[in-house]
């Protein structure tokens, strides 16, 4: 039994192939590339290979089929789940409008701001050290450019990279550089903001009491964070409500075991499924595949593929088409006990060896260090 996977000698540019004995979990050989022809030649010289564990890369599938037609190909279960998780996140992103059901509609403001009271478009207040530093850099760069200096000259004078100077030069105002900065980072309070908004609408505005209410629900943050959020609701001229969760977060709920989700997460996922039939179908398909994977029920794969094709989920249709082209290996991966875990461990060890060699040694020396490692 042989496990095969790729490793990077130069990430994004050049890759090799590592082969591992699945029984002994020891590396057998290293190939200088990941071409199907190289794997075919290696397997052709070893006709005794009965099982090939691999990911779903087409060059490994073609090489194994040509070099060892008698061998059973086994698609790795982790890679199958990873492919499904990527497809699930794309499906949730395509229905992101359904996630707004998790956020209560904000009431219309009673008073429209006058021209003199028009709020600043900047998310950073005047006096904030990040904002002031950015404004100063913006003014300096634009002054030098207006004086006739090139962007390269400005970067050299100010000790900045040319990309930074280019980004500042393209922004007409400093406020254009603030979008997407720290103010939009995820917070431990995010998943409890909907609950706080509901309680606020009911008339409960005491920060300490609300903090005590969400702690039993699983909140691990501080009281000060709750107080700051409620203070913003009190003082902001515009209604402050929770943002809908990101597609990645909702996909994480769908991909998790139901019993591991907190009560607020279970309620929010239930709300999403109620308001969006497509995401409800996605959740059912993901959980069905999870049972099939964990309980080794590969014979159910054809029925799962047929069920997926009946729903309007293009990202899952793409995944199903890819699985159909590699159906025999996927069924084997969902049925047989073997996987590529040992190979992934050696890929990680190869990364360590490359760093120890500073990327300056030849392939032959790397191969010796991998194969002779004790």
- Averaged pLDDT: 86
CATH hierarchy: architecture of the largest domain? 2-Layer Sandwich
Low-confidence runs: 109-122
CATH evolutionary superfamily of the largest domain: Ribonuclease H-like superfamily/Ribonuclease H
N to C succession of SSEs: EEEHEHEHHHHHHHHHHHHHHH
Range of strand content? 5-15%
Strand arrangement, major sheet: 3-2-1-4-5
Shape: globular
Largest sheet: 5 strands, mixed
CATH class of the largest domain: Alpha Beta
Structural class: alpha/beta
Gyration radius (Cα, Å) is 28 Å
- Please, how many domains? 4
| N- to C-terminal distance | 21 Å
Number of strands: 5
Helicity level, as a percent range?
40-55%
Please work out how many helical segments DSSP would assign.
Answer: 17
- CATH fold field value of the largest domain: Nucleotidyltransferase, domain 5
InterPro entries: HTH_IS21_transposase_type (IPR017894), Transpos_ISL3 (IPR047951), Transposase_DDE (IPR002560)
Pfam families: DDE_Tnp_ISL3
Protein name: IS6 family transposase
Give an account of the 3D structure.
- It comes from Streptomyces iranensis.
- This is IS6 family transposase.
- Residues 136-200 form the HTH IS21-type domain.
- It holds the Pfam family DDE_Tnp_ISL3.
- With 374 residues, the chain is an alpha/beta fold.
- The protein has 4 domains: 2-76 and 339-371, Nucleotidyltransferase, domain 5 (2-Layer Sandwich); 79-99 and 247-333, no CATH class; 104-113 and 183-235, no CATH class; 129-178, Arc Repressor Mutant, subunit A.
- Helix content is 52%, strand content 8%.
- The protein has helices spanning 36-44, 58-67, 77-94, 129-146, 151-158, 162-170, 193-201, 207-214, 223-235, 247-255, 263-275, 277-294, 301-309, 314-325, 327-333, 341-356, 363-371, and strands at residues 2-10, 14-21, 26-31, 51-54, 72-75.
- Helix 3 packs across helix 10, helix 11 (263-275) crosses helix 12 (277-294) and helix 12 packs antiparallel against helix 13.
- The chain is globular.
